[in-house]
Specification:
The structure is a single chain. This protein is α/β, with parallel strands linked by helices. About 25% of the residues lie in helices and about 25% in strands. Strand 2 and strand 3 form a beta hairpin.
């Protein structure tokens, strides 16, 4: 355990957590909704500091990040807890329940990352699997060390964080995939038990800070897949983040508390059709055969990055330009 950042003491040893927009008032002996921060004798502590559920080497496309170091591998690390409670969570066994963990210090993890980087086996470290923002103290300390070693830090996150802690963390973060669950505040309130506005604010602040951003939207039949809602999401991405921001529509599968059938693939195709009217890079995920996974040049229509289930198979991008017509392709290459 480690004393937490971003909280204040209230009366009767109650503490107010200021890390995320849940603003949990936590009584002594109790934890916040994230299950990762607990009031012990009037002080807020991080329960998951240094506690790791998994550490693995992944293709960076798995995050998914398609325009950041394409074809590279990245070490991925996760912990317990989440500050949302989505009924469809794919990783509920670590986000909403306890699982076995082992301990590492930030220095030890950063040393592992540096070793992989020196061997050219990894471009850095991705904080993923559960919600890394509720692992704030550990992520901040580790990210500083990884950054000092000249390697990349990536967040795969729900973006549900307050402005001050985000501002402290952003200087060390190179790329983020932010999961915008829906463009409906009521969906966030009823299905995820969170808020939409802070997520949008996180994405906009990260973009302004120069962080590479990609957005993922999991489409769930009858809940967040209407044409109007998809149009709202697309309009926001284009206006607030820019039309070169990659948008990933991901297929829902039954998980955790949700038993509804998987999203029809045609629903994802229609969403992509709407998005491509305003965005240059739109992708489909969680569907067979890697349909919708290739990067297509928006000028000449040729495939400039071809992806398979094993990762990147072909790259026709030279100095961030299409090899065929010379149009700018908005990727960050190693």
């Amino acid at each position: 355990m480690r004393k937490a950042l971003y909280w204040e003491a209230k009366s009767d040893k109650v503490v107010l957590c200021l890390l995320c927009p849940n603003y949990c008032n936590i009584k002594p002996g109790k934890a916040g909704v994230c299950r990762a921060r607990k009031n012990i004798a009037g002080e807020l502590v991080s329960l998951n500091y240094g506690e790791i559920t998994s550490l693995a080497l992944d293709p960076i496309e798995k995050k998914p990040l398609y325009h950041f170091c394409p074809g590279s591998d990245i070490l991925s690390v996760g912990t317990l807890g989440c500050n949302l409670s989505c009924g469809f969570c794919q990783n509920w066994h670590i986000s909403q329940a306890d699982a076995d963990t082992y301990s590492m210090t930030p220095a030890a993890l950063a040393e592992v990352v540096a070793d992989y980087g020196a061997k050219k086996e990894s471009v850095g470290l991705s904080y993923t699997y559960s919600e890394p923002l509720v692992w704030f103290e550990f992520v901040l300390e580790t990210a500083e060390l990884v950054h000092e070693a000249g390697l990349k830090n990536v967040l795969v996150t729900n973006g549900h964080i307050c402005e001050k802690p985000l501002k402290e963390l952003l200087p060390y973060i190179d790329a983020m995939n932010i999961d915008v669950k829906s463009f409906s505040p009521s969906f966030y309130a009823k299905v995820c038990h969170g808020k939409l506005e802070p997520v949008l604010r996180t994405a906009e602040a990260a973009r302004k800070a120069g962080c590479h951003i990609e957005i993922t939207n999991l489409l769930i039949p009858g809940l967040n897949d209407s044409g109007d809602e998809i149009s709202e999401l697309v309009n926001w991405v284009a206006a607030a983040l820019g039309d070169t921001t990659p948008l990933h529509f991901s297929r829902y599968y039954p998980a955790y508390k949700f038993k509804e059938p998987p999203t029809p693939i045609d629903t994802l195709r229609k969403a992509a059709e709407i998005a491509r009217r305003k965005l240059k890079y739109v992708y489909l995920g969680n569907i067979p055969g890697k349909e919708g996974a290739d990067t297509i040049c928006y000028e000449c229509g040729k495939t400039v990055i071809r992806r398979t289930v094993f990762g990147v198979a072909e790259v026709h991008v030279i100095d961030a330009k299409c090899e065929y017509c010379g149009a700018p392709i908005h990727v960050i290459q190693t």
